[in-house]
Amino acid sequence: MNGHAVETVEHLLQNGVSATKVHELEIHDLDASKLTVTLTKSPGKVPELDSKEVWSMKSNTDHMVRVTWTDDVGWHAPTIEPYGQLTMSPIASCLHYATQCFEGMKVYRGFDGKLRLFRPDKNCNRLVMSSARVALPTFDPKELEKLLKAFMKVDGPKWLPKSRPGTFLYIRPAIIGNGEQIGVTAPSEVLMFIVAVGWPDLSSGTPPGAAPKPPGLKLLASKSDVRAWPGGFGYAKVGANYGPAFVSHMEGRKMGYDQILWLLGSEYQVTEAGASNFFVVWKTKKGKLQLVTAPLDAKVILEGVTRGSVLELARERLVSGSKYLTSEVKDLEVVERNFTMLEIEEAAKEGRLVESFLSGTAYFITPVSAINFRDQEIDIPMGDGTGGYYAATLKKWLKDIMYGNVQHEWGVIIDEE
C-alpha cells in the first residue's frame, strides 16, 4: 500500500469506518493505466483565433476526463469521454461546504510543431495539496500528469493544430465533493474532472470590437477587504478563496481598474493582485536594484507556477556577467520578503521605482501601469511605453520554453502518435 492509499485509509477512519471494515476493503489509488477512452460522435468546431468564442472562455474541447472516488473503493478507473454536463444531488458537499479545489494550466502548440505542457508536475503537486486542505482525498500526482497527457493526446491535435503555432488552450483540472452529505464532514464521494477551453491572450490582447486599452494594468489597492491572512488557506487553490473576492473586483472594474491589489494589515502589506502574483522592480535607497515579491512562508499567497519560474530564471540569468544582460536589463537582487504600499509610494516619489508586473497562468506576465492607493494614483514606469524591460525579458524567456524556441526541461512534450 503506497502513501496515497494510506492517506485514504486515514480518511475512512476519520469518517467513522471501523478499522476491521477498512482492512477488508481494497483501496485503490489513482491509476492512469486503467484509463478508457470513448470518443464523441458530435465533434465541435474549433473557434477562430482571438474570436468572440475564444474571449467568452466557454469554447470547450470535445472531451473531458472523469474519475470518481468513493470511500469504500478509493479512486475508480478514469475515463476520457465526450464533454458533457455534470449532475449531482442538491445536498452535494461542494454546494454547501466548498469542498472543492482546482488548477489552472495551459497546453501550447510550439513553433517546432510539438505540443507541450509547462511544468505540469508543479500543478499536479499543488492540486494534491489543495485537495488535502479541504478534506478531499489525495492521489499520486504523477498519475494525474499521465491523465493530462492522455487528454491532450486526444484533443490537442484538433484544437491546437500544427497550422496554428504559438497558440494555447487553458486546462482546468478540478476536484469536487459530490457525495450526498448535508452533514459537516468530509464527503464520501468525490469527482475529479479535467476540461480544456479556448482562452484569449489576456497579457496583451483585447476582445473583438472593444476599444484598444492603454498598455499595462491599473490596480486598485484594497481598503477594507482582505483576501487571505496568516494561518489561513490563501496558499491553497480552493474556490472559497475566489468567490468572496469578486465583490471588490467588480467594484474596481466599475471604477476603471483591472484588478485589486490585495493589502494586509495596518501597514498595507502587499500580497497578490487579483488571482496573480505581484512583482516590483525598484532601487533601494542605497541604489541597489531589486526584484521583489511577497514570500510564501506565512501561507498567505499562492505558490504560483509562473511566479516560481520567474524567480528561478531571474536568479539564474539576471546576475553580474550574464550573457542575458543588456543596457536596459541589468543584474539585480531577487528578494522574497514582506513589503508594503508605503514602500512603493515612497520609491515612486523618490524616483526609485523601475517597474511592476503580474505573473500567473491567466495573465501570464503583464505589466502594471498604475496603482490607486488611498485614493491617489501612483504611476508606474513602463520602460519602452508598452511595459517594463524586465517584464518583457522574463515573458520572452518563458514563451521560448513554452513554445519550443529553446529546449528546456520545463517544457514537457506530449506524444501525439
TrEMBL record:
Residues modified to N6-(pyridoxal phosphate)lysine: 237
Cofactor(s) named in the record: pyridoxal 5'-phosphate
Catalytic activity: L-leucine + 2-oxoglutarate = 4-methyl-2-oxopentanoate + L-glutamate; L-isoleucine + 2-oxoglutarate = (S)-3-methyl-2-oxopentanoate + L-glutamate; L-valine + 2-oxoglutarate = 3-methyl-2-oxobutanoate + L-glutamate
UniProt entry keywords in alphabetical sequence: Amino-acid biosynthesis, Aminotransferase, Branched-chain amino acid biosynthesis, Pyridoxal phosphate, Transferase
A molecular-function term among this protein's GO annotations: L-valine-2-oxoglutarate transaminase activity
PANTHER family: BRANCHED-CHAIN-AMINO-ACID AMINOTRANSFERASE, SUBGROUP IIII AMINOTRANSFERASE
Listed name of the protein: Branched-chain-amino-acid aminotransferase
Organism: Hyaloscypha variabilis (strain UAMH 11265 / GT02V1 / F)
